[in-house]
């Protein structure tokens, strides 16, 4: 039952990554990311509660759960929304690859990650294998999302999705990494996020657009 | 009936066809007589052939009709043998040719006193005869000779209206492609004969063929027979040839001639190459799927010509048959006999069903051309009121090809899907994932193919038969003559019967299956009580088209009762179609065939690369145009990216080498002879 | 024999009785969210009875196809519904039929409707039928993958509903597997596309830019329209039944008929609410965004297959 739930939640995370790829509105990027983070929070809650029931002691993953809820579900999306409101673009119009095609490519990416992880001999536990496949696919999809979107908001979301995927992998395969590693990761992310947020404003004010394709103009 | 009668009736058949050819030629100055004679003989021969092979298939399953004409030509024996496989394809030939002959009685009136009908009659009879003999020949060289004969005769029939430029062009493409295909078949046959030291088709000692060469032979066969079958990318001749051929010829070519390439494939797969590698099946499956999707996509999106729509849809249907063949080969390689029987049923059933409904549809298209003189859908419309019977028959054909239960198209498409589902489940426990993923992709592609078939035939029927007439020709249309209607009626009836009485059709295929793979398809014997059920393979009840038809009929009766009750209390008023309160609707305001398929062109623009061009002659202002000329073109991607480069490369190569090899000096030519001779002598002396 | 006929009749009665209800529920739900009182939940029933009594206006250009199409559409939908198991023990017509038959029956009904729309010679009709055929073609792959997964789930590769029924009867306990839920989600999207609900089509609009299904049936009136509406309701019920019973067979093995029927209704209501939520939270897509929608359904169904049969 526990693994069934985890399986389901991580599949839903994968699907939210897919729906991110299918989206083209910046607001829905943000709400999809929020949904995905909520799923991640759910997973961490599940993991921590189980660990607490088994060990009958406080589990550090619970702190992670709170951090995820506070930052990834509430703060970051809100900050992103206010950023998105200030730039002129609401809808992404031109893509390098059109949406149906990129969905199919993403399907291929899932198959690829399945194929890679399936052939790793060291992992014997089937559930762990599945979690790795899902989280690895989320990372790949996030990367693909960053490639396929031209606007800076998309880049940030893609980056955050990659981070979500790595978090998922870390949490489900190790049942919680050492606290200090996770905290370090988290603050890395936050700093990166704030820097990027500032960059968006700068790009917007310099080029009157957040199309990162225009950064090409910077080269000498 | 003793078996000897079958041999006699077969010989009588041949004589009838020959008599038809000769008598048509002899009376060519009187077109009516000539046409009547040629068709009555082919009709008689066709019905005789049909009856005798049905008897053979049902009652004389283990008896093979054989006969041998002695001659002194080395290797080439006039050796004929009709086993169950041949008989099945002869059944298709016989039934379709007999129906088309009825149709031709009046269809050929188009050409009276304009063209030489006598020659047409002779060619027509000989063409059918060549196909009959081809399906029963038991000698590779004889097969090749007849294959060539069939191709040549069909070429002459295609270019029957040779004074038109586009006909010439279509014929040229056809003959070039068909010769390319034959070259591959010849190469494959020579390889087989080289290793087995025999030209017999049925009794080859196949273990003599080395593994690598068997692969090569299969690829050659796929290319050769695939060209005739018109699968992508060897299809380029097909849409033109079928469009330009007269309606009855197109019907026979699409319904019978194409199927003979399936016959050739099956014959060689089962009698010469009893073992195959997995990748043969995978390759065939992929080619089949690509043909199905591309064929139907072109049929929907880039046609306004009825016959061209039908020919692209032929490509799609051959694609489905090749998919079945791919599953069959995969099943054989992996040793799943149930799947093998299922896929073989799919192949044979779809072959038969496609012959039935495609000949019906081509006859319908021919009837439209016969009455209105045009094949362009944009000039038709409203024909359902002018030619109600013909419209109803074509409608049945459309429903059958769109796989609506309980018509026959549903049965075969259903079994194709079943074979794919079964292969997925078969490969799951052994965890052969690449092939599972392939099958899932194929299933998705076939699903979208099925839906686009419906789209395509809604376009065909809706634009050309419904709505208001778009031209005076359509306005003045009338019902075609009775023989044409009768032929179409028989076809439509067969489509319906073959769908509902699926089990008796399976019964016909059963003996072919026993002969090829030694598996009985039907779990228990045929009797009236389980007439409608359709048990497959291991005795599980799966689907019964008869029951569904029964259910639909009962529900229809209930609805009819309700409607009759309601009708008493309500009135029906005839009024104009809603025109938004402006002026009355005109035919020009209707949706056109191009407009109807625009959505598909846009969604699949990667396949078509549509180009739009609007040239406007302005009137008194920008909003009052005098004349607008709208040109829409779609690109033939395969021609452009596959054939063009090859053709250019060949042209370049020949241009360059022309001056090096073709010097014009006779001495150099003699030198070539000399060198070739010396090299050959050297080769033989060292090889031996 | 007589028993099965009786069961079939009961199933048809149930179908006709409950099919319009869910549309009413969705409308009511939307009205509540928009702070309107909204029509009664039973409004579709009132509409239907009124339409059955009304006189007909038939286009002068139309032929017999136009007059036949509503009945064919209705009959194919009803026949499809007859194939499906509704409550434990009440299997209708399932034993000789098949999920693929259900799909192809819909194809038949759709062809008739599309042709009828072209039959009147109106531009709206042509537009509607072209779009409807496109939408159905786009979601067809997802639907087939769902069917393949369902049949692979029975482990004997059967699409026969009797076999699926056997699987359902023993697997009610383990209904909420990831595979089933993914298939459920995919079928929800297919349902939305096939029954012309909001992100794909707007059933409440009469604007030529947005109409799909409505454009096709624009010319119909009286009992023709009533049969078409009823057919659409039944089609919706077919997809809901596939989702509620076949995909998530939880609580299905209840031999108490009343209780089983109650669970069935409850599940249908949950699905209705889901459809309503999707409607409330989205706006209608442009026609050329529908491929994106269809591809999402396809991807989810493929993932469902993947989790069920490859990630094991």
TrEMBL record, chain A:
The chain crosses the membrane at residues 6-23, 35-55, 61-80, 95-118, 130-147, 154-173, 179-201. It comes from the Bacteria. One of its GO terms (cellular component) is plasma membrane. Its EC number is 1.-.-.-. GO terms for molecular function: oxidoreductase activity. It is found in: Cell membrane. InterPro entries: HyfE-like (IPR038730). Keywords: Cell membrane, Membrane, Oxidoreductase, Transmembrane, Transmembrane helix. The keyword Oxidoreductase applies. It is a multi-pass membrane protein. The keyword DNA damage does not apply. Its main location: membrane. This is Hydrogenase-4 component E. The gene is hyfE.
UniProtKB/TrEMBL annotation, chain B:
Its EC number is 1.-.-.-. One of its GO terms (cellular component) is plasma membrane. It is a multi-pass membrane protein. GO terms for molecular function: NADH dehydrogenase (ubiquinone) activity; oxidoreductase activity. Belongs to the CPA3 antiporters (TC 2.A.63) subunit A family. Residues 76-109 form the NADH-Ubiquinone oxidoreductase (complex I) chain 5 N-terminal domain. Coiled coil: none annotated. It holds the Pfam family Proton_antipo_N. InterPro entries: ComplexI-like_HydComp (IPR052175), NADH_UbQ_OxRdtase (IPR003918), ND/Mrp_TM (IPR001750), Proton_antipo_N (IPR001516). It comes from the Bacteria. Signal peptide: none annotated. Keywords: Cell membrane, Membrane, Oxidoreductase, Transmembrane, Transmembrane helix. One of its GO terms (biological process) is ATP synthesis coupled electron transport. Residues 137-428 form the NADH:quinone oxidoreductase/Mrp antiporter transmembrane domain. The keyword Iron does not apply. The chain crosses the membrane at residues 6-28, 40-59, 85-105, 117-135, 141-160, 172-196, 216-238, 279-300, 320-349, 355-375, 387-404, 435-458, 484-505, 548-566, 666-686. PANTHER family: FORMATE HYDROGENLYASE SUBUNIT 3-RELATED, HYDROGENASE-4 COMPONENT F. This is Hydrogenase-4 component B. It is an enzyme of class 1 (oxidoreductase). It is found in: Cell membrane; Membrane.
UniProtKB/TrEMBL annotation, chain C:
It is found in: Membrane. InterPro entries: ComplexI_Subunit1, NADH_UbQ_OxRdtase_su1/FPO. Keywords: Lyase, Membrane, Transmembrane, Transmembrane helix. GO terms for molecular function: lyase activity. It is a multi-pass membrane protein. One of its GO terms (cellular component) is plasma membrane. The chain crosses the membrane at residues 6-26, 71-93, 99-121, 133-152, 172-193, 233-252, 258-278, 290-311. PANTHER family: FORMATE HYDROGENLYASE SUBUNIT 4 (PTHR43359), FORMATE HYDROGENLYASE SUBUNIT 4-RELATED (PTHR43359:SF1). This is Formate hydrogenlyase subunit 4. It comes from Ruminiclostridium hungatei (Clostridium hungatei).
